[in-house]
Write a structure and sequence with these properties.
InterPro entries: RNaseH-like_sf, Vacuolar_transposase_reg. With about 220 residues, the protein is an alpha+beta fold. It is about 50% helix and about 15% strand. The protein has 2 domains: about 1-105, no CATH class; about 110-220. It has 7 helices and 4 strands.
Length: about 220
């Protein structure tokens, strides 16, 4: 059993090492024998965009449940799995007052900055999920997202730069933006939409090719 645990633990540590940021959920419960236990679960997204979560430890809480003691216990669990401080971005808990001292000011700042970066993605997802009036706006939205919201800023922290870089890479990979052909239905629909027909997100050369495709289709 111990060998199996050790092997599984090593696999978890390897996956954590290959992740960019780690979030935690934790709670303290009391058994029927009036013994307190704290469970700590980690959550992260792999470079392949797979959501992973693992229960790192369920440990006995032999000390008072103060914020300082809880923070110390959580820190010990994270240290045991070699999770560096800069990867510890958020903790989800039950909002009890004694849980509010865990994250440092820098970690709260990073969590807020990450939320701000991800905010426009929520809007984009909602728009792309609509059944109507989306096709012609798709490329405009994606290119604007990359250029305006995901471009690195001078005051970005290394972690935020990495988040933005990863998001841009995934967008390019999934939508193949650099390989879009002039005959792409997304580009053609944009060219036919009064709102986006100027195709500001394309180079002049690429615009001309799209307009040629439109003329060929309608025999203009």
């Amino acid at each position: 059993m111990s060998l199996k645990y050790s092997d599984h633990r090593d696999q978890i540590v390897t996956q954590i090492e290959n992740s960019t940021a780690i979030s935690f959920t934790t709670d303290i419960c009391t058994s029927v024998r009036m013994e307190a236990y704290m469970a700590v679960t980690c959550h992260f997204i792999t470079r392949e965009w797979k959501l992973c979560n693992f229960v790192l430890e369920t440990k006995v809480m032999e000390v008072n449940h103060t914020g300082v003691n809880i923070a110390e216990q959580l820190g010990e669990v994270a240290d045991a799995f070699a999770i560096p401080n800069y990867k510890r971005v958020a903790v989800v808990h039950d909002k009890a007052s004694n849980m509010k001292l865990y994250l440092t000011a820098d970690q709260w700042k990073l969590a807020q900055e990450t939320a701000e970066v991800l905010g426009p993605l929520i809007t984009l997802t909602e728009l792309l999920s609509q059944e109507e009036n989306v096709l012609s706006a798709t490329m405009q939205m994606l290119f604007n997202l990359k250029r305006r919201h995901l471009s690195p800023e001078e005051d970005d922290s290394p972690a935020i730069r990495e988040v933005k870089k990863t998001l841009v890479t995934e967008i390019d990979s999934r939508w193949k933006l650099s390989l879009l052909e002039p005959s792409s239905i997304y580009l053609l629909s944009s060219a036919l939409d009064q709102r986006f027909k100027q195709l500001k997100f394309l180079t002049d050369e690429k615009k001309d090719l799209v307009y040629i495709e439109v003329r060929l289709i309608f025999k203009i």
